[in-house]
Write a structure and sequence with these properties.
312 residues, alpha/beta, Rossmann fold, Alpha-Beta Plaits, 2 domains, four-stranded antiparallel β-sheet, 11 helices, globular, binds adenosine-5'-triphosphate, P-loop_NTPase, transport, AAA+_ATPase, ATP binding, ABC_transporter-like_ATP-bd
Length: 312
Amino acid sequence: MHTIEVEHVHKSYGPVTALDGVSLSVERGETFGLVGTNGAGKTTLFRLLVGHETPDEGAIEVAGHAPSDGVAVREHVGFVPEDAGFEPALTGREVLGYYARLRDVPADDREHRIRRVLSTVGLADAADRTVDGYSNGMSRRLALATTLLTQPDVLLLDEPTAGLDPEGVADFHDLVRRVGEADVTVVLTSHDLREVETLCDRVAVLDGGRAVAEGPVSELRARVGDRVTLTARVADSDHARAALADHAEVSVERAGDPLVVDCPQGEAGDVLDAVRAATAVDRFEVRQPGLTAAFRESVDDGRRAAAGGETP
Ligand SMILES: Nc1ncnc2c1ncn2[C@@H]1O[C@H](COP(=O)(O)OP(=O)(O)OP(=O)(O)O)[C@@H](O)[C@H]1O
């Protein structure tokens, strides 16, 4: 069952086309990643999903409702914008008090729900401090807490971890996983493809307002094939490179120290043996290219298709 359905959506701002015929669907309970280049249309899509803007063409349904149905959206959809800011003189608890009213939480249940979400996001101890003293990570968690007051079916998180330190990122990831376990459909945008790979079941790649790829993270990654990157600390990189000259499927990406080689997964062992026969190898690691390469490939394919007038 699809909780989010976006069909052939176009949106322009004057001469700027922000979304150019985007279609995608997100299933109930999924954690879905929306990735793309700067200005690809990710935030615009979020604004359409919560009814802050209306599409010029196309149809959108979220949790069984049109985004123009403001009451349903408030009840079923939680949106954490990239720049969620709060009145600095209010405490975290007071902020949540206002949001509880805004979201029509019954008066006799407010205190209980506020206490519960403060505990969920790990802000119980900081609840009575004013938010001007909150760290970036705490503010993001408070923003998420505002959406959890009404147990939404859908959570939209726009670059939720941008600017957080590694500990803040890890805390937020734990939180998203916990929220996701409760059958909530989560859609998040991110420029950090490792984050998307870690958290998301499926992903869509936007470029220039077009969805150029959509599918399970593993499928997208498979588009770049079974090649791996081998990085080795070598005593003599010239000897190492010469030893690989006869390997047709192997390309030396960097011929210094470390030596970086791109090769088919099945040949990584032979490549390492050849390098070790030619020079001393101190350390080495083999890595799959991951989503970054798949993302670049999708964007390139989409641009080629657009130039040729095809649909990717
Ligand atoms: N209110 C607006 N008025 C004019 N142009 C806009 C407006 N909102 C978005 N745009 C333009 O629409 C395009 C898509 O913008 P959007 O913010 O959706 O991209 P994004 O993928 O979220 O980018 P980023 O990753 O940089 O946050 C951009 O060219 C942007 O300049």
